[in-house]
Design brief:
302 residues; mainly alpha; Rossmann fold; 2 domains; two-stranded antiparallel sheet; 13 helices; elongated; Ubiquitin-activating_enz; ubl conjugation pathway; ubiquitin-like modifier activating enzyme activity
Amino acid sequence: MHMMGSYLRPGKRKGNLRDLIRAHMLNVDEDNYKEAVESSYKVSVTPGISDEIRQIIDDSSSEVNFSSSDFWVLVASLKEFIANEGNGELPLEGTIPDMTSLTEYYVSLQKIYQAKAESDCLAIEHRVKSILRRIGRDPDSISRACIKTFCKNTRKLKVCRYRSMEEEFSSPVLSEVKKYFADEDSCFAMNFYVLLRAVDRLAANYSRLPGIFDSEIGEDVPRLKEAAVSVLSDMGLKGSSLSEDLIAEVCRFAGAEIHPVAAFIGGVASQEVIKLVTKQFVPLNGTFIFNGIDLKSQVLAL
């Protein structure tokens, strides 16, 4: 332990530990030593909590009350755990990666990690129950299975806060709008975003989509252009306009629903629903625009 500490002291060359491992290799083909060398950088990683997780546990919502969601009760318990049993660290996940090892050694190491993870989970569970009692709620209202899942994923927590469509439409963030229009990759998506809103506006005024009658396409193009200019003005871009070709193409399209594209969008939507229902994985935050011509998609967080 003393020797390992000397090799990891600040200022020591990062390759020292790798040299130490290689020095004990009997031949160059020993897989366990190769894996140890490849993963040696992990030993010198500074322990602690990421800035993103720190922001979550320091969020004002972690000061819980009777109406707080289960998630924030769990975050409050995590905050207490870090300050006490965790000694400044998050609870252990309890898993170890695959590695070349004798089975009995691997199982023994795995049991050590699992035992510590179980101990941490129990500490979190006690704190959850204590907090629930403190805020006047049933101490068993958050299941052990939920607590266990939370403990396994504390390093991957993410809080998503969304703007409603009403906020997006009535209070546009001009800096974000300008950023997307200025970016080459996002500009095309922004054009279609504005046109889709313009189509909705025109449909509300005329009770039909533009271009569905061949005889009125000539009239619909300037109408849609006017609606697009109105949308741009609402977004803070007064005096701006879109490409005449794009406007004419949207009118020519006449609100058609191409089956493969509709099926793809349906798949995207169903995937997002699963994320929200299971509260696992990170949902999209913004408006999803799919460009079937170039097979590109873009999420606009407006």
